[in-house]
Structure formats: structure tokens, C-alpha cells
Amino acid sequence: MIKQRRDSVTQFEAGGRADLVAKESAEIDWLSDYLPAQLSDAELDALVQEAIATTGASSMKDMGKVMGYVKPKAQGRADMGALSARIKAALGG
């Protein structure tokens, strides 16, 4: 729901609708109170390094192994798209 509202904010900003931007932003703040705490950048980096070490991943072809290890630990606590980008960068992709 928060992702949808962030997309809406972007569109409303482009359309010059400050009233709707404020409404959607308030809803994002309200919904955020009910979500689990998000992992910090340092925690995400540590989790990616732990996954690479545990799975023995060494290249992009091991991306699935690393995601399989990381996903259950980060689900709901991190943006999976951003996490995937971190893994790709760590694996040299």
C-alpha cells in the first residue's frame, strides 16, 4: 500500500497537485507506523555478505542462491528491488 502511495505522490507532484501530495504523504506516514522496522543500509550489506559467504556465491549465476537465503530474512523489512541491486553489485553484476 505504501508503494502505491509513493507512486501516486510522484504522479501528483508531476501534475502539480500539492493537495493530493499532502494527503498521500500523510497516509504513508500513518501506514508506516504499522510496518516492522526497516533494515538499515549497514544491516542489509551485512546480510548480503553473510548470504554470499554461506552459499559460496561467486558470480551472477549464483544470484538465485543468495536471494533464496536473504529473502526470508528481509521480507517486509526491506525493498526487495533495492536488495536485489545490492546483491548484483556485490556479485560484480
How many distinct helices? Answer: 5
CATH class division of the largest domain: Mainly Alpha
Measured distance between first and last alpha carbons: 30 Å
Helix content: over 70%
In the CATH scheme, what's the topology name of the largest domain?
Arc Repressor Mutant, subunit A
Radius of gyration: 17 Å
Integer tally of domains:
2
DSSP strand tally: 0
Assigned CATH architecture of the largest domain: Orthogonal Bundle
Low-confidence spans:
none
> What general outline do the C-alpha atoms trace?
elongated
Determine the mean pLDDT: 92
| N-to-C series of helices and strands | HHHHH
Largest sheet: none
Structural class: mainly alpha
* Beta fraction: under 5%
